[in-house]
Amino acid sequence: MLALLNKPMKESMMEKRFIFILCLSLSVFACSKTDHDNDAETTKIEAVSLQNNEQVYWVNSLKSECTGVGSMECLQIQKGDELKPNGWTLLYSPIEGFEYEQGYVYKIIVNEQAIAAEHVPADASSIKYRLVKVIQKNRDDSLRLNDIWALESINGETIDLDNGERPRLEINLHKKQIFGTDGCNNFSGGIKSLDQKSMIFGAIASTRKACMNMETSNKFNRNMANVQSYSLEGLKLHLNDIQGNELFVFRKVD
């Protein structure tokens, strides 16, 4: 008799256990599906979808002096998904609808529409550029380089100012040029390449005055030819060689 009573109870407990496991499995499946759907949606939002005549443009944080009909300032741009340190070219025409703010690097989608030859004004572009979408707008910290810097040390050694003038370096990112003094002679040159970490100078020309003590000046000029990278720390600018060895430490003047 007891065995007969226990049999329905056992079957009832087994049914409840089966229902519990089934519900748990369905819950896990539902959660997994939701997470998967969310991931797919995020990927879809981040993906860049281009229509006909559309291109991905990068726009540099500074305009550059250029010559079109007359002297003017042009946007520096690159095309494509990857941003290359030395890939900037000048765009002589405006991008309709694009509100440019200096100091930011942009990634945008631009529609390029060809204009019929008979409708192109003299000395104007045969392509009309129109903003489709701003994908990214990031502050460019390298603009902090655009200043006058006074030398504090060379190769880790504090410079001796008992003899001569303190060397200075002026960086003009707008013109991509450098100016200054090595403590004896004035110099000027160009910036060959620049990005968030690296900076390489082009050929540097200087005056040829002879001073009583040329030791600091000679070290300065040798090191300037080896500058490959930089870092900014507060009001200090560190210039390093290709191995990361510190060549100079400058302090911001103004």
From TrEMBL:
Residues 147-251 form the DUF306 domain. Transmembrane segments: none annotated. InterPro entries: DUF306_Meta_HslJ, DUF4377, HslJ-like_sf, Hsp_HslJ-like. It holds the Pfam family DUF4377. Residues 58-137 form the DUF4377 domain. PANTHER family: DUF306 DOMAIN-CONTAINING PROTEIN (PTHR35535:SF2), HEAT SHOCK PROTEIN HSLJ (PTHR35535). This is DUF4377 domain-containing protein.
